[in-house]
Amino acid sequence: MLTHEENQLLTETNRGTAAGEYFRRYWLPALFSSEVAEPDSPPVRIKLLGEDLLAFRDTEGRVGIVDEFCPHRLASLFWGRNEECGIRCVYHGWKFDVTGVCTDIPSEPPEYRFQNKVRITAYPAQEYGGLVWIYMGSPESVPELPKLEFARVPESHRYISKRHQETNYLQAVEGGIDSSHSNALHSSVDAFRMTNAYVESVRNSASLREKYHVLDKSPRFTVQKTDYGLIIAARRNAEEDTYYWRLTQFLLPSYTMIPHQKGHTINGHCWVPRDDESCWVWTFSWNPDGPLPEKDLEAIRKETFVHANVESVSFRPLRNKSNNYLIDRNLQKTSSMTGIHGFAAQDMAVQESMGPVCDRTKERLGTSDTAIIAARRLLLQEIRALAQGEEPTAPKHGDVYWVRSASMVIKRDVDFAEGAGELMKATV
Predict the structure, then answer these.
(1) pLDDT tens per residue, range 215-259
(2) pTM of the full predicted structure?
(3) Contact residues for 408 (Cβ-Cβ < 8 A; gap 6+)
(4) Which bin fits 323, alpha (ψ -120 to 50), beta or left (φ > 0)?
(5) Which of 55, 187, 370, 403 could form a disulfide with 221 if both were Cys (CB 3.0 to 4.6 A apart)?
């Protein structure tokens, strides 16, 4: 349980807030490169950390991310003409380049050189791994891009999706590091009840998750601090003298990696605050050894795992709060714990049901919430330290993000970190 003041400190991310300044110390995914695919293509609105911004690709192929509103009379530059290395406001013709410099003011006499006195907010942008990344912090301390494996594999080896979620970022992050909820939320009725037929069906499964994950619903947690954030180890009983371990990373400021089994596709998330009451959910699937297998692409198309189908411009999920996530109550009675299709929609349903910003002063936490408590403490420490003038170290060292999640069965007398060994090292 948090105090009201701690909850505010963690969840308020607009400009001038302590958490907002903390997020602005990192490179953050802002949009797909394909959203501004061609030089002089139409601009794109985006909202990040409470700021209304505009992204565009100029004539020379450079991507700019600037304040959406022209400083003259505050008309939206979304209606502007993207031409000749700048975005031109159609109201009076004022024009700005990707660095925010005003290059032309046709409505003012040229001898006044008024454009030399005008500029708009512009943030550094870099393209990396099929995405446009933004840095919204101090220009004196631009950090390194995080060395994330999904961004370095060939395009055919990865799939990335984005969706708009109607909650504060922290609710989504906490769902991502909660390794016990999937025993209920993402389970079938038979799996939750551990019927004889279900237990027999998974006894010889090649999937460790199917074989062991649901057979022990009360994992024991160990959390260790790392250079990038936390490693969260959930231990379940396996066979005889072994444990089944699921190792999840929480990477600052708001990434998680879902435990993966060697040889399988790896999945992860990044939650970026849109404003205090909504966030962008980036979901990454990648295979370091080759193109994504057809079975994984099929799961993506059918929304059976972590990706959600979305509307093309708004990126709002097709299964959303306004249509009750297309819940099927008959399916809920007979086979699915939720009656909601797909992990992504299931997560959204419970997280959005908490309200835009969860009141954590009313919670009753247990031992299964060990990771959530640790992540809150870490974020509070980081945010408070920055407020006292101590810069975070993780964004300065992109190499610390060169990791993978893991799941494996090992002997009970072997430490999980030793047992994971090379499994947790990225290679691409």
Answers:
(1) 788 889 999 999 999 999 999 998 889 999 999 999 999 999 999
(2) 0.95
(3) 208, 244, 245, 261, 262, 419, 420, 423
(4) alpha
(5) 370
